[in-house]
Design brief:
heterodimer; A: 78 residues; alpha+beta; Mth169, Chain: A; three-stranded antiparallel β-sheet; elongated; B: 226 residues; alpha/beta; Rossmann fold; nine-stranded mixed β-sheet; two-stranded antiparallel sheet; 5 helices; 23% helix; 24% strand; globular
Chain lengths: 78, 226
């Protein structure tokens, strides 16, 4: 089973990387970009029987830092 | 004075472990034991554990994230919970926040630039094992060299840290965007200190600065007597 874990900074946590991307987009002449937040996408290939609880635990224990990040688990159809 | 039994942990990608070991040896007179990240156990009856700077695991995932889940860290966490003093510098600080031994997190520097220079600091807490030799409010200078030293914690946590005297060091000028200019924090029990500046790079005049020496002297004196 393919699983995508989307990790993003929590609202309110400063994202210097997103800011730099935003700045660069403006430099390229793209107007109307109001904000940019950069995150991380982690793709897992796990056994079909892997439980939601186990996936959740992977995120909480390693893939995301719950002090600064949120995560969203997306199961991808094969 | 009895022997000062210290351990310096090396992770793949640590690069300040030797400096840390030299600093501990010069100040305490005893060479620390070198410990590898894959070891499951620490040496017996340690007085002190140091987590050095560097780029453990190439900063993959998040700085310090993979190192904080390595086998030796289970032993370090258990030792810290028993009260063994633990000092984490730079990447070592990131490992301590990632492991949950210290609150907060270290984000990318607000200006995105890697900062590598000597910075002025204020020693805020002089009651801790690590800072007892400094005078209150002392201004010192220490080198920093990091990309991710921007200390973050929610407002409630920051208030608590300040209220409990757990901010050990503060930048005396803007360096990396850290919340409330925090450069070093203590755990609640006071036996774990994480800091971005490098005291081990400033222990004798040959390094151009010996302001960091007092941190190690404080710990050695506090643990094995003068």
């Amino acid at each position: 089973m393919k699983v995508r874990v989307h990790v993003s900074l929590k609202p309110g946590v400063l994202d210097p990387q997103g800011r730099a991307i935003h700045h660069s987009l403006e430099g390229l002449g793209f107007s109307g970009v109001n904000d940019v937040r950069a995150g991380r996408l982690i793709e897992l290939d796990v056994d079909d029987g892997t439980s939601d609880a186990a996936l959740d635990e992977m995120c909480r224990k390693l893939l995301a830092n719950m002090v600064i990040e949120n995560y969203r688990i997306e199961k991808v159809a094969a | 004075m009895s022997d000062f039994r210290a351990a310096v942990v090396t992770f793949p990608g640590s690069n300040c472990d030797r400096d840390m070991a030299v600093a501990l040896q010069k100040v305490s007179g005893t060479a620390p034991i070198r410990v590898w990240h894959g070891d499951a156990d620490l040496p017996e009856s340690l007085d002190f554990i140091a987590l050095p700077g560097g780029f453990s695991y190439g900063d993959y995932l998040r700085c310090g994230a993979i190192a904080s889940r390595s086998p030796i860290m289970r032993a370090v966490i258990a030792a810290a919970e028993r009260g063994v003093p633990v000092l984490g510098v730079c990447n070592g600080f990131q490992v301590l926040t990632e492991s949950g031994l210290l609150p907060g997190a270290l984000l990318r520097n607000s200006a995105i630039r890697f900062v590598c220079r000597e910075v002025p600091l204020e020693v805020v807490n002089t009651d801790s094992l690590f800072t007892s030799g400094f005078t209150a409010g002392a201004r010192i200078r220490l080198p920093v060299a990091h990309h991710d030293g921007n200390y973050f914690a929610d407002e409630e946590t920051l208030d608590r840290l300040e209220g409990e005297g757990r901010v050990a060091l503060r930048y005396a000028e803007p360096v990396n965007g850290s919340a409330r200019d925090i450069a070093g924090v203590l755990n609640r029990a006071g036996n774990v200190l994480g800091m971005m500046p490098h005291p081990e790079r400033a222990i004798e005049p040959a390094q151009g600065n010996d302001d960091g020496r007092m941190l190690f002297e404080s710990a050695v004196r506090g643990l094995v007597g003068a």
